[in-house]
Amino acid sequence: MPALTMTPATRMGLSISAAVGLYGISFGALAVGAGLAVWQAQALSLLMFTGGSQFGFIGVVGAAGSPLTALSTALLLGTRNALYGIQMNALLRPRGLTRLLAAHLTIDESTATAVAQPDRDEQVRGFWTAGIGVFVLWNSFTLCGALLGNSLGDPSRYGLDGAAVAGFLGLLWPRLRRRDGRAIAALCAVVTLLVTPVLAAGLPIIVAAVVAFGVAVLQQRRGTRRDEDDDLSDLPHHPPEHVQHPHREDS
Asked: Could you give the 3-state DSSP secondary structure of residue 215?
């Protein structure tokens, strides 16, 4: 894990941590309102630690669904993190216990902060800053929201959900300055609109993530193949050697 130094990546990671961490108040309050105990809400934030899955879990529980259905929903919504993990594992190349920690901190925010950086060192700093920052603040504010419970009223009136969306837009904007980023975003938006009427809640975003990941893999392979072709073109070209035939002497 790199030392914390104030670079553009760490500043971005800290800002997104603050925005998303505050949203934990909403989760804590809604979890208690759905019938969970304070320690259960806190356990979800500590162990599950992926906002979409956590809200999906308490949404099913609050609607009197079975724990198995709630868990299945949470696991389904967390599938996208597995796709993130493939990219982050190749980027970070963690070893030992650090690999387990990196896997737990691989969420939307840490991944987005990492891939928004221009070079590998900044990508690593962005990942760890956002991952650890969101983990600490999300769990802290989950506890606050769970303890305050119903005294908060409707958490959405504080605009915390808007803060999280604003944070994502801030991370997304630099990627949209590139033509390929805009193309991928447009493709995912179209796919999401097409599948939303026919798929259950939570599935369209997973489909969009799979599409984006597939396009990224194709682009990477194409770039690798282009680099290999360039390397071959840089090799010196020797003219074909002409075979020297001995002259026959006429007798």
From this structure: helix
